[in-house]
Automatic annotation (TrEMBL):
GO terms for biological process: negative regulation of microtubule depolymerization. This is BMERB domain-containing protein. Residues 1-103 form the BMERB domain. It holds the Pfam family bMERB_dom. InterPro entries: BMERB, bMERB_dom. It comes from the Eukaryota. One of its GO terms (cellular component) is microtubule cytoskeleton.
Amino acid sequence: MSADEMEAEMARIQRLREVLVRRESELHFMMDDIQLCKDIMKLKQELRKIVAVPDAEKTKKHRQREEKLLQEIHQLVQKRDFLVDDAEVERLREQEEDKEMAEFLRQKLSVTQSKSFHSRLSRACFLFLYGRDL
């Protein structure tokens, strides 16, 4: 295996690693999002039960719990919004990294192909001049 081939293989392995790390990050975001949604739904169900109680029958404890549930739901919704925003920022950052990597690889491939061409040309000239291989 040549040095260029080893370098290309290392780049491929590094790229695969980056893809797996990104996927792991996406899955963590998804798990957190699912958990927040479950928590929000649970609190909303409890809130619906309290709201269903006629105002005339609501105790001070009912009203306090209703207020507390609204605050908790609001906090969880804000937390989920931040999570979604973070996921979007991460996605955009990864897109930019992908563009930069594609440009780097395009340039690297261009240089490698140029070196390979010059190497083949030199070899052909040597064969032509000396009638034997390098």
